[in-house]
């Protein structure tokens, strides 16, 4: 979906960043700006500034900055498109959808109206459940017995679904309204069309999306009934494989704690929040999926999965490993916490205390160690057969990892366990992968025409260019050379550093356009900085981020087609064309590590430039005497710039 630059500019002119940020952060007037405690990292004195004149927020402690769109993306986890639509709705603007036909727009409007109707119904039911909780001594006694206070119950909107088959009929006079069945609140017997409440005599946990809207419920039986937990069914607004319980309530705690703790149940989340760990979330009665992991990494760069130490917990952790591996970049941390079989997080904290549980989290098993442990299951490493089995079980896990230092280090560790040279193991796995592909069932004609590019061959892993050859880079004997040289023909487009664009921003754009997968390796601060660059670069990077969230890493040809009509399209094509001309005669294959290293160096230099600008502003404010904290900000910015300069020199010397 292409949103015109003119619309985005008009939207940002209409919204007030102070009002947008003020919904989530308590702000106080401080000179020309508003100040508050940063929602992105823990702090005791305010270093988070919002400028009403510049319509810009900036934290002098952690470096986060941006406009109203960027704040919603960073704080609420919305995608670019979601943030734009949310702000547009607040000011009564209609987001243009130029690429959609009238029929598509009508269908989208109908779907949006249906979603709004369903959330309204669910919100109304949730309010009824909360009222019933106030009058049910049995439900109140159960929650108190679990150690929950009224304050924490209110924060999570806990309620009670009373006994009786049609209690919701008192809330919805039109009990046969199709929305009640479609929202999952009412079950309809297909044989006799009789209707009854899905949730009866249960503690009710409302499930909220990142906007805080109720999209479903989880119900916990009070007595000995079955099932113990009952979830809403799949609906147009609720998908168990994508949503996480407690994520909306945990947003601020995620930033202050620096990590998210993924648990197995609703009660774990609520109880941990009561006990000082408000950064916990839970999957909704299903295994952790890649969609869950991707959503979590929109809020934090560190995830800790917590499981029981029994067999069921290990199996759940194994599924979480599969979902997490594709997102285990070098700038992220993924750990697995296994508690003793007799404990869940709630009981462990109550018995041993917060500090003991925090230490358990700190000592949690890194993803690299758990991958090796999972791959080594049932393998006798004292025999050749056992080591061969390890190789077979490790390959599909290792191949899920994105390119980077972690993947290369794990290759070396696994090679040592299998007793092969690292290069030999990589070659063996490459041959096996090629064999798997060669003998895979033929795709149907419909599947043979994907809307997105096919994956590149192993030797170009990570370089998702749709113009890259489907087979390995061919060689041809050059008979006319006279010296029997082999030469390469039809080399793939080179995304490595070859020519010097006009500016650092041009150079960074070319690297990311040629290899969009690099976007996933960037820290959130890097992404925000790129999106806040002046036109055309900032708008290009914001657009790329939206494309990445919606479609994943696209190749240059696919990006080129999608960006037609955007204001930055012409410049982007020129940058890529200049690169192609400079690389046409270069026979060296692209190197993912070289591209990543060069991008890191560019980002450091861009950030250094930005810090210099902020230093000048802080020094000016300090000299004016109007801002007593300005000198401290200047010193902090100066120290950070020196550190980055040292890192840049280190990268340049490697």
From TrEMBL:
Q: Which enzyme type, at the first EC level?
A: transferase
Report the record's Gene Ontology biological process terms: DNA replication, synthesis of primer
- What Gene Ontology cellular-component terms does the record carry? cytoplasm; DNA-directed RNA polymerase complex; primosome complex
- Pfam families (UniProt xref): DnaB_bind, DNAG_N, Toprim_4, Zn_ribbon_DnaG
Entry's EC annotation: 2.7.7.101
List residue spans of CHC2-type Zn fingers: 38-62
Member of which family? Answer: Belongs to the DnaG primase family.
Which PANTHER family does UniProt cross-reference here?
A: DNA PRIMASE (PTHR30313:SF2)
- How does the record describe its quaternary structure? Monomer. Interacts with DnaB.
Name this protein carries in UniProt: DNA primase
**Organism per entry:** Limnohabitans radicicola
Instruction: Please name the gene that encodes this protein.
Output: dnaG
């Amino acid at each position: 979906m292409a949103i015109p630059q003119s619309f985005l500019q008009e939207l940002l002119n209409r919204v007030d960043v102070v009002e947008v940020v003020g919904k989530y952060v308590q702000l106080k007037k401080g000179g020309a700006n508003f100040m508050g405690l940063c929602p992105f990292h823990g702090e005791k004195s305010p270093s988070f500034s919002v400028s009403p004149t510049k319509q810009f927020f900036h934290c002098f402690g952690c470096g986060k900055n941006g406009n109203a769109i960027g704040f919603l993306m960073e704080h609420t986890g919305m995608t670019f498109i979601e943030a734009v639509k949310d702000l547009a709705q607040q000011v009564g603007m209609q987001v243009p959808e130029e690429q959609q036909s009238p029929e598509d727009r009508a269908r989208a409007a109908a779907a949006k109206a249906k979603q709004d109707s369903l959330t309204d119904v669910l919100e109304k039911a949730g309010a009824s459940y909360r009222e019933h909780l106030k009058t049910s001594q049995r439900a109140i006694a159960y929650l108190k017995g679990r150690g929950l206070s009224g304050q924490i119950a209110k924060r999570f909107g806990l309620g009670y679904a009373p006994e009786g088959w049609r209690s919701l009929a008192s809330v919805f006079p039109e009990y046969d309204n199709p929305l009640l069945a479609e929202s999952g609140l009412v079950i309809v017997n297909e044989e006799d069309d009789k209707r009854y409440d899905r949730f009866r005599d249960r503690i009710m946990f409302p499930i909220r999306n990142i906007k805080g809207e109720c999209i479903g419920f989880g119900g916990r039986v009070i007595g000995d009934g079955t099932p113990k937990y009952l979830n809403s069914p799949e609906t147009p607004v609720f998908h168990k494989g994508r949503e996480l319980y407690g994520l909306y309530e945990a947003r601020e705690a995620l930033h202050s704690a620096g990590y998210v703790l993924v648990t197995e149940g609703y009660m774990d989340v609520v109880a941990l929040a009561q006990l000082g760990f408000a950064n916990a979330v839970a999957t909704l009665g299903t295994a952790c999926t890649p969609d869950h992991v991707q959503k979590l990494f929109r809020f934090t760069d560190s995830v800790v999965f917590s499981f029981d130490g029994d067999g069921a917990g290990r199996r759940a952790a194994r599924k979480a490993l599969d979902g997490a591996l594709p997102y285990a970049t070098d700038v992220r941390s993924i750990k697995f916490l296994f508690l003793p079989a007799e404990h869940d997080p709630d009981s462990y904290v109550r018995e041993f205390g917060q500090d003991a549980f925090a230490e358990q989290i700190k000592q949690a098993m890194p993803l690299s160690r758990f991958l090796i442990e999972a791959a080594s299951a049932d393998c006798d490493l004292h025999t050749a057969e056992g080591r061969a089995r390890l190789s077979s079980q490790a390959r599909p896990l290792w191949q899920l990892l994105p390119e980077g230092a972690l993947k290369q280090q794990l290759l070396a560790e696994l090679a040592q366990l299998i007793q092969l040279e690292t290069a030999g193991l990589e070659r063996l796995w490459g041959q096996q992968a090629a064999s798997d592909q060669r003998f895979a069932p033929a795709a149907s004609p419909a599947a043979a025409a994907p809307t997105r590019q096919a994956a590149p061959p192993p030797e170009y892993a990570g370089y998702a260019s749709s113009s890259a050859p489907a087979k390995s880079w061919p060689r041809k004997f050059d008979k006319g050379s006279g010296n029997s040289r082999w030469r390469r023909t039809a080399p793939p487009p080179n995304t490595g550093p070859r020519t010097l664009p006009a500016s650092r921003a041009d150079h960074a754009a070319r690297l990311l356009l040629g290899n969009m997968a690099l976007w996933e390796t960037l820290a959130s601060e890097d992404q925000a900085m790129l999106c806040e660059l002046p036109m055309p670069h900032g708008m290009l990077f914001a657009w790329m981020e939206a494309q990445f969230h919606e479609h994943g890493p696209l190749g240059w040809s696919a990006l080129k087609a999608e960006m037609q009509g955007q204001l930055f399209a012409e410049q982007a094509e020129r940058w890529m064309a200049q690169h192609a001309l400079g690389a046409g005669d270069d026979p060296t294959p692209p190197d993912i590590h070289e591209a990543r290293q060069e991008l890191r160096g560019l980002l450091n230099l861009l950030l250094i430039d930005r810090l210099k600008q902020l230093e000048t502003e802080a020094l000016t404010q300090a000299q004016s005497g109007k801002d007593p904290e300005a000198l401290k900000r200047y010193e902090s910015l100066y120290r950070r710039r020196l550190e980055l300069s040292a890192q840049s020199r280190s990268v340049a010397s490697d």
